[in-house]
Write a structure and sequence with these properties.
Distance between the termini: 45 Å
Shape: globular
Structural class: alpha+beta
Bound molecules: zinc ion
Largest sheet: 2 strands, antiparallel
């Protein structure tokens, strides 16, 4: 730890406490980011180094921040630095594009909905929802995103959102 501060966020994932490293250095981050293959962001050491650095870029030292999809303001312990384009599909250069490759997503649902392609982000940041789900409960959750815009969308991130939309989104792409 270069600043000597203890990790602040003691989160629990799967019942186990996850202590994010206080601040991974850029050098530590690059070593982790260049590792090929999927990294478990909560449990593998390199995954935690990478996530710690990306969290620092996104959240700095704030206590609370907004989820880019649902817009809820939450303690940062309930937010993750999520890859816009899945990490496993990113080139080395893309994994190092720290300003653009991640956005904040909450652990109250948006992380899973985005990862599973039940929501995606279209042109101009409009949130698209996959409405043809058999679960009424899920449809009700998804309907809350109708008409919303993703706060993290910008021109530099657009190609990463487009990749996710083209390859992971489960909904109709008629209006694109
Ligand atoms: Zn959210």
């Amino acid at each position: 730890m270069d600043n000597g501060k203890p990790a602040r966020a003691a989160d629990r994932i799967g019942g186990d406490p996850v202590r994010w490293l206080a601040s991974a250095t850029k050098r530590q981050f690059e070593r982790a980011a260049l590792k090929e293959g999927p990294l478990d962001r909560e449990h593998s050491i390199l995954g935690r180094v990478e996530q710690s650095y990306l969290r620092h870029i996104l959240f700095r030292d704030v206590e609370q921040a907004r989820c880019s999809l649902c817009g809820r303001r939450l303690p940062v312990g309930l937010l993750i630095a999520a890859h816009v384009k899945p990490r496993s599909e990113c080139s080395r250069r893309e994994r190092l594009d720290v300003e653009n490759i991640v956005f904040s997503l909450c652990l109250l649902g948006c992380d899973a909905l985005y990862e599973r392609g039940l929501v995606a982000v279209g042109k101009g940041g409009l949130i698209l929802i996959s409405t043809a789900q058999s679960s009424r409960t899920l449809n009700a959750v998804l309907s809350r995103f109708e008409g919303r815009k993703c706060a993290a969308w910008n021109a530099a991130k657009a190609r990463y959102f487009s990749w996710h939309l083209a390859r992971r989104y489960q909904g109709a792409k008629l209006d694109l």
